[in-house]
Amino acid sequence: MLLNLQLTTGADLAPHNRIGWDVFAAEVVTLLNKAPQPITFLLWGVKAGKLAALINQPHHKIFTGTHPNAFLSYSDPLNFALSNHFKLVNDFLQTQQLPPVDWSF
Asked: Using one digit for the tens of pLDDT, what is the confidence trace for 75-104?
């Protein structure tokens, strides 16, 4: 599941972070945190990284890093590419005797 903290809207519309989307996203993470099976969370960006406080470790696995958006001045796409999160997720899944994710598309 992909869950953004802020959705893009039209030019004349307020971004979703002003209408409670971030509250909704935090509630989703809180509910997912209650899952009995381990979940891997990829929290990319500063705002997403703050959601780590809602997640129980080591039951669940969290990977944090820079946001992959090349158009943001504070984002470094090279740092994102070098983070190796996709391999790390699959490594974690193997430790849980779960099948790896096929990240190709």
From this structure: 565 566 677 889 999 999 999 999 999 988
Categorise residue 10: left if φ over 0, alpha if ψ from -120 to 50, beta otherwise.
beta
Contacts of 43 (CB under 8 A, 6+ apart): 49, 51, 52, 62, 63, 64, 65
Using DSSP's 3-state secondary structure scheme, residue 42 falls into strand
Q: Which residues contact 86 (CB under 8 A, 6 or more apart)?
A: 101, 103
Q: Are 36 and 28 in contact (CB under 8 A)?
A: no
Instruction: List pLDDT tens digits, range 10-60.
Output: 666 655 556 778 888 899 999 999 999 999 999 988 888 999 999 998 899
Entry pTM: 0.78
